[in-house]
Design brief:
One of its GO terms (biological process) is receptor guanylyl cyclase signaling pathway. The protein has about 240 residues and is mainly alpha-helical. It has one domain: Transferase(Phosphotransferase) domain 1 (Transferase(Phosphotransferase), domain 1, Orthogonal Bundle). It is about 50% helix and about 5% strand. Helix 1 runs antiparallel to helix 4.
Length: about 240
């Protein structure tokens, strides 16, 4: 069965957690990119995670940097940058003047963790909404930690499932080598969430993908029918005209 609009009542179910659903969708997309020839995204942030009409996450903003700019590296702006956009950049890149457009897999994991925390807290004012610092100062402390505990978004067991807190902290570790790959993140997320809950989400994503593929097949079939009908009409009209 394909998941049509009449079957979207899962939005009202108690087991549905929107933030977990979008985390799982994003996780699947990042796993695919890391296994592909692209190897990494390099620009993961909320503005590059698009949601389509079927509630699927579509990752964007990657893959064409070299074609567009003619170089493999971008410069981190030092004057008048958009500091809030830099929240999702791994600290090792903030310390560089130039960094690769496609980033690294470890840098993607850092960005994913910041987005995941933002989804869990369901805030529209960024991951550092409860840190009483100006964006410029936040980036300064991310770039140059002022203590043994680098600045990171706060985590409270009252809002964030306590089983996810160690995972998030590992993903945004100051040491890139300590950040787990997405395959491991997916496994740990399964262990942290109720098994049935994650299975339902996986099943839902699978149905959404099948539904999207089915729509593409229907559109292609109808287009072919229209083309064939137009061809017949043209032949009929041609036979009726005087020669």
């Amino acid at each position: 069965m394909f998941l049509g609009t009449e079957n979207l009542d899962f939005l009202e179910q108690d087991w549905y957690k929107g933030e977990t659903f979008f985390v799982v969708c994003s996780l699947q997309g990042m796993e695919y990119i890391h296994k592909s020839s692209l190897k990494s995204h390099g620009n993961l942030r909320p503005s590059t995670c698009l949601v389509d009409s079927r509630l699927q996450i579509k990752l964007s903003g990657f893959g064409l940097w070299e074609f567009k700019h003619g170089t493999k590296h971008k410069m981190i702006p030092l004057e008048n940058p958009n500091y809030e956009e830099m929240y999702y950049t791994a600290p090792e890149f903030l310390r560089e003047v130039y960094c690769p457009f496609n980033g690294t897999q470890k840098g993607d994991v850092f960005s994913f963790a910041i987005i995941m925390r933002e989804l869990i807290y369901n805030t529209e004012v960024g991951p550092y909404h409860d840190v009483h610092l100006e964006p410029k100062e936040i980036i300064k402390q991310l770039r140059t930690p002022m203590s043994d505990e680098p600045l990171r978004p706060t985590l409270s067991a009252d809002i964030c499932d306590e089983r996810l807190i160690p995972l998030l902290k590992a993903c945004w570790s100051e040491n890139p080598d300590h950040r787990p790959p997405f395959v491991s993140i997916r496994r740990q997320l399964r262990q942290a969430c109720p098994e049935s809950h994650v299975n339902i989400l996986d099943n839902m994503v699978s149905k959404l993908e099948k539904y999207a593929n089915h729509l593409e097949e229907v559109v292609e079939e109808r287009t072919n029918q229209l083309t064939a009908e137009k061809s017949r009409a043209d032949k009929l009209l041609s036979s009726m005209l005087p020669k």
